[in-house]
Design a protein that fits this description.
4 helices, globular, Nuclear Transport Factor 2, Chain: A
Length: 169
């Protein structure tokens, strides 16, 4: 009889342990399924506004209109390049001016499905994406796909880029 009671207690303890394990698994699996509430969701109007700014800026780039292209950047621009380090405004635009003088016209295309826009409260927006650059070199087309992050500042109705991070070269 004592043996029978010990077996029943053992079964009860095993069942309690099994229930504890199941409850723990369910608890932690629900944590993984819970949706995180974003504090700053992206308004569709902001997304369209930054996408339009990007399009107009690179239309100037693709037509080598340096004056219009420069107008999209603030004078305190900091450009971070994974393979070039930190570059300031004057050097950035000296480099663009030299590139625009070359025979091999460089063009840029945003890979649209990669575009992300995130608001920055009381400042502007973050633009993240991937773009493709093309040019002819030695009789053949060269294509490069790179990632970028740009910080846009809105002053009144004017948008300008204050920071660029160009990477994955």
């Amino acid at each position: 009889m004592l043996l029978l009671v010990a077996i029943e207690v053992s079964k009860i303890n095993s069942m309690k342990y099994a229930l504890f394990l199941v409850a723990t698994i369910l608890l932690f699996s629900n944590v993984g399924l819970a949706h995180e509430k974003k504090v700053a969701s992206t308004p569709p109007a902001l997304y369209r506004e930054i996408a339009t700014q990007d399009s107009m800026m690179f239309a100037a780039f693709n037509t080598q209109n340096l004056g219009v292209f420069k107008s999209y950047f603030s004078n305190d621009l900091e450009w971070f390049q994974d393979n070039g380090g930190l570059i300031g405004y004057d050097t950035v635009f000296m480099n663009f001016e030299n590139n625009f003088k070359k025979e091999n016209k460089l063009t840029r295309k945003l890979l649209k499905k990669t575009l992300e826009v995130h608001p920055i409260k009381n400042y502007g927006a973050i633009e993240i994406g991937t773009h493709q650059f093309r040019h002819m070199e030695n009789g053949r087309e060269e294509i490069g796909i790179f990632k970028f992050l740009m910080i846009w500042k809105k002053t009144g109705n004017k948008w300008q880029i204050t920071r660029v991070v160009s990477y994955d070269h």
